[in-house]
């Protein structure tokens, strides 16, 4: 460590650091991005209902509203409650073996959303922030710093669950009303027993590869989130005795010295390298310091396969002629053998496969979104570009199911803005020359794309009607480009 004392920034104190494990794997940080720090979410005289899904790391908090406050709109509160409290009959109960009960049961009504018949609370729902494994909560007491590793960082924002609940109940009531009208219009049926048709469905055994692909799909992740039961938690204000006892667990009890063999400069160098690898390849366009780009000289010094991966991960879309920068003399014949496994041929250009851009266990630098969901979204962009269709950021957010920050970053890496009408198009021009010189490569790439398209449409639940619409947009863009 440099012992030179800077007069402009003198050392004012040296504190011993301790690590506490009393709350290991249990400590979460809640952030409220839309809340002023001077206004607590719940004051010491109120109570919040909290529920938690540990596997999904999801939290919902019902925060009470002061319905007597002068700025509370009582009429709107009652209107919201009336919509969210519409009668709703739940599905019939099932036996422990999953069969329907045959004895008549009274209809089971879903409880009211707002028991007071006015909207007396609102809901905060969480989203996971980027990986918290490299962060810790610090607590300073008596000249000592005590650190506890964070299990997760959750950002809580207001949700509109009461509106969704109202829409669902209104739709169910409308459906029940129409069913009753149809039943009233039907003539009386004969009391004679009627024959019934029993349908038997035989499903093909799922292969291990198909099962692995299904478990990586967005639909499977959403189903896992929905299937995990909520666990109710007890909310305690930060001034309560229970909160104080829990806060004491942040104090490390061990006074044993920590063996630390690395010199300071090497420790910092390793931290820098660790940050770069843990953040994956998703990077800010303003060159985040932990994600420096690799030089062409360094890429060319690597074996061909590794160099191609590095180049594609950084550039993402390239013409074939650009790969000459990393191919050593005498190895050009190997290039077309290795490229199809690393990139897709899109409009004659080579676009890095999304699994290369978002490796396993990586996540978005902006939102913390995990690799599988980023891959689905980026594949959707490649699918549209393959068909020659443009894409708007709102379409990527809708069909790719990613937040605005990730959608913007993806498009900036692969595309350029064409116009307000069409949105974004592939950033490189169609390489017709390559496609004419290598028809066998194009034919093989077309076969690969058929499998790619089938998997993508299944995973993102894209309809054939949507594909038809995308093809029509591509024709409109082609006509517009030809007219320029």
Question: Helix/strand-derived class?
Answer: alpha+beta
> Number of helical runs?
16
Helix content: 25-40%
Count of strand segments? 14
Q: How much beta, percentage-wise?
A: 5-15%
Which consecutive residue ranges, at least 5 long each, have pLDDT under 50? 93-104, 273-292
Query: Measured on Cα atoms, how large is the radius of gyration?
Result: 29 Å
Order of helices and strands: EEEEHEEEEHHHEHHHHEHEEHHHHEEHHH
Strand order of the largest sheet: 2-8-5-4-3-9
Would you give an account of this structure?
The chain has 484 residues and is an alpha+beta fold. Strands 2-8-5-4-3-9 form a 6-stranded mixed β-sheet, with no helix packed on it. Strands 1-7-6 form a 3-stranded mixed β-sheet, with no helix packed on it. Strands 10-12-11 form a 3-stranded antiparallel β-sheet. The model is unreliable at 93-104 and 273-292 (pLDDT under 50). The protein has helices at residues 74-84, 161-185, 208-216, 218-227, 241-248, 264-278, 296-300, 304-315, 335-342, 354-357, 371-386, 393-399, 404-414, 432-437, 439-459, 464-483; strands spanning 16-19, 28-31, 49-53, 58-64, 121-128, 136-141, 144-149, 152-158, 231-233, 317-318, 343-346, 349-352, 415-419, 423-426. Strand 13 and strand 14 (423-426) form a beta hairpin.
